[in-house]
Write a structure and sequence with these properties.
Blueprint: H1 2-12, H2 21-47, H3 52-59, H4 62-95, H5 101-107, H6 110-113, H7 116-126, H8 132-138, H9 148-173, H10 177-184, H11 189-217, H12 238-247, H13 253-285
Helix pairs in contact: 2-13, 4-9, 4-11, 7-9, 9-11, 10-11, 11-13, 12-13
Length: about 290
């Protein structure tokens, strides 16, 4: 008994089962610095080589502004669509039993496992005028590949797992008694969903939305082919503009870093705002 009590006290004091707290902490700080902090610092260092007037002139160029507008707008639309259908998909995978459920659940991970360039080539071919799906829509004068529609579809493809995986654990822990109690009290299905279920899922839904949005704004591999990268048609994305500067004859590292810095700031602000909304929604549901 005394040994059990002593072990419980040690656990309560924060002792880890992994030995060498100093060593593991050092490894953690080192990896964090090498993989995140130093690369981010290098972006700022290259950006600061430009004067303020050069920085503003670069960021306010028409092609750069249009690229930012295209990336943010398409990523926002894709994140909203992913939030709606991701919620439905997560609900079905958790609450229903049907043949092929495990296969469908495993396919959610496909955008994570599949190289983004492969996904981009496949989608651009499928939705082109000669593709299986694109040929059908072309009969009605609707082009998908090499337009913002195709760009948004690619961002939906790579963003849907973030929403589904964020919602699944919360739905699994959500007691079905909530729905039963609401039904017994005479609430309609619509009222039960929007006033009982959705408030409980809102923090997780916002997390998935934020992750899908941030990923979509900076996406490159899956959109580089299907977007067409046309400045005239407004299908250039920010990541492509950055690659143009790096792949030019005289690589413009400072210009690429400056655009990347603005992209980083936008993504950080979006995630910050979404996290604040998430915290506020979480407090209301407690």
């Amino acid at each position: 008994m005394k040994k059990n009590e002593a072990s419980k006290r040690k656990v309560k004091k924060g002792h880890s089962v992994i030995p060498g707290r100093g060593l593991t902490m050092g490894i953690t700080v080192t990896m964090l610095s090498l993989l995140i902090l130093i690369p981010l610092a290098s972006i700022m260092a290259y950006s600061f080589r430009l004067s303020w007037s050069e920085f503003v002139e670069l960021i306010t160029r028409q092609n750069v502004v249009r690229a930012f507008a295209t990336s943010i707008s398409c990523a926002l639309i894709a994140a909203v669509i992913n939030s709606i259908f991701g919620l439905i998909l997560a609900w079905v995978l958790v609450r229903y039993e049907f043949p092929g459920k495990r296969l469908m659940d495993a396919m959610i991970e496909l955008p994570f496992a599949l190289p983004t360039a492969v996904a981009g080539i496949t989608l651009s071919k499928m939705y082109s005028n000669q593709g299986i799906i694109g040929k059908f829509f072309d009969q009605f004068g609707i082009r998908i590949s090499y337009t913002k529609i195709g760009l948004t579809i690619a961002l939906i493809f790579i963003g849907i797992p973030f929403v589904v995986r964020a919602l699944q654990p919360v739905i699994e822990k959500l007691p079905e008694s909530f729905e039963e109690a609401a039904t017994m009290l005479g609430a309609s299905k619509t009222y039960t969903f929007f006033r009982v279920i959705l408030p409980e899922l809102t923090p997780a839904l916002l997390t998935g939305f934020g992750l899908a949005l941030a990923r979509g704004i900076g996406e490159y591999g899956s959109v580089i082919y299907i977007s067409g990268n046309s400045e005239k048609n407004g299908t250039q994305v920010v990541s492509y503009v950055i690659m143009q500067k790096l792949n030019s004859g005289n690589a413009d590292y400072e210009g690429a870093a400056a655009i990347a810095l603005v992209l980083l700031i936008i993504s950080f602000l979006l995630l910050f705002v979404i996290n604040m909304i998430q915290l506020a929604a979480g407090r209301r549901t407690k």
